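Fold these two proteins, one after the other.
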Amino acid sequence: MANLETGTGASRVMFLNSADATQNLSANYLTTDYIFIPDESIVVPPHHTILMSLHHTQIPFSFYNFQTGRNTTLNYGTSATGVVSGADTGTIEIPEGNYNAQTLLNKIMELLNAETNVGTLTIRFNRDTLKYEWNWVGLAGHERLTLRIATGTNKDVNFRDEIGFNANKFYQGSDVFNVYFDNNGAGRLECGYATDAVATPYFILPSGADTAYWTGEGNQGGITANIFSVVDMNSSIRSLYLRTNLTQHSVLDSAVGGGFSSILARVPIEVDSGGIITVSPSDGSIHKLILKVREITFIQIRLTDQKNRLLDLNGLDWDISVQFDFIETPDLRIPKDKRLQIQERLYKDFKDAQTKTEKSVKKK
């Protein structure tokens, strides 16, 4: 009996394990980018098309929300009151791992306060507003602390979104800004231009508003600010994306301007760290992609985050199975009765034109 959805008698399912494939990078420990070459190619019969879907997958949740080279580095600068911090003074690197809002701010405070001339930075997480609240007490000659979150040396690998400095909350959604605390008695939080060399900031949060949530217990006399963006602990990795070399003409992606991408499926993360991320056949087979290839000689698999960056499973292998359904390519021939109607209309148009021409000739 034929499959009711595809009109075919059976499906082909290919089971793949990253341990059986060839890693596509020089780093063999990175099992999330590999090529598998089957002993027998999958050939598409004439007048047929393949519908491809994700059948099943099991991925060990061994990667980190905070991963080196992705979102663990932060440049900072210190300077005197009112003096622009135009260069990086130092850098902190939080260890890669899985943090919650409290353990992350504890680690940031530990590392920054251990730096020379930083002074005392105190951060608190407000569970009602889901924001970090900051209190800053500087040292003599180093009264301004600049968190160089978008224009520093490591602007692309810092954790600005996770701690609330989301570009969407700043002027015109710009991502070229730094955030600095200036202990000059004005008690303000300012967000400067890309080079911090322009006097007019993108945004100024007056002290009368920013001290409403926390008076800075233990740090009286410092500057307290409630950052006006919600903390997003999972900013770096919200979902996993399975990508293949076969799905180049089936999926549209806003990340590439709405053009076609290599995404096969989006895999939501619904387990805790240390668990197994699973997609069952009922989940994966809902979305079927039409393939234009006539023969499959190899298949490349990539496991990435939403920004198409490879994940590191810390050497662990993972499983995936893809399903191929063969459907008969529809014949788009015009029905017989429709052809007759078209022929009759064309003949009538021809005769009308011929008659019109003959009348024109006789009149002359």
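Now the second one:
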Amino acid sequence: MRRKIWIRALAVSLILMSVPAAMASGDGLFGILSRAEDADERLALVEEAAVPVSVSRSADQFSVEVSQAYFEGNRVFVSYRVTGGPAPIQDGLDLEDGAYADIIAGDEVEQEDGSVIGWKECVVPEEETADTLTFSLVFGRDDDSRISFTLTRSAYDVYLRGTSGADTCRAMADLAVGKIDIKGTVLLTSPEQAASWIAWQEGEEETGTDVIACWNLYQNGELVSVDLCGASRVNDSGNILFEMMFPRVEDFSGLSLVPEYSEAGENPDEAIPIGLVTRDQ
């Protein structure tokens, strides 16, 4: 679903270091943006993984450059610079066949010289995901305000898996590790939790039982990250499917997923131990 044209719709902050000075130090835009106040903690990793694009277009009084980009799994990260005013940049990215990769994260930072630098993370629809895709960043209504670039997807090569619980309440975690983050699912088989989760989502006061809202990543008993995604649903089999995302870690030992209940909070006693597996396991 397309979102409205984005004119600084996300938070705008100010970086004291100018773009030219930062560029002289070897940083790309993702690196510069990683130093903004309240910056997404993954941006430093995106800076290392991203490839230069350096494609620009001018239309009306605006000049927009796509500086860097990175394509991993079903998500694409893009950094850009705008001069000549706050350009009406479309939230997501267009694909060649007319499909749309919607935005899930991003930010813009105003510079001392009046220019704006920004980044966005967009999700490619599963049915459109391929090893190579051409994207377009749109900042106007005609072809002169469309910047197209082609990216090759970075494949996941590290996998984590774990299981806990009894047959009547069984949780199975399946995650993939990319250069930027850890992304995957927990499938919870529990008719009681599924019924209560539906009631909870519908806003009913009495849900029957306290429901699991999300799962957080721990390592050796210490919190690594809360779930950055937090999406869940009851699937066609009546099980709860939690989709989750965490920043990448370099050490995969001692990892576990701890459930966080909507009322009682986290329960480490119900954690799912997760460890490395091969892709074929």
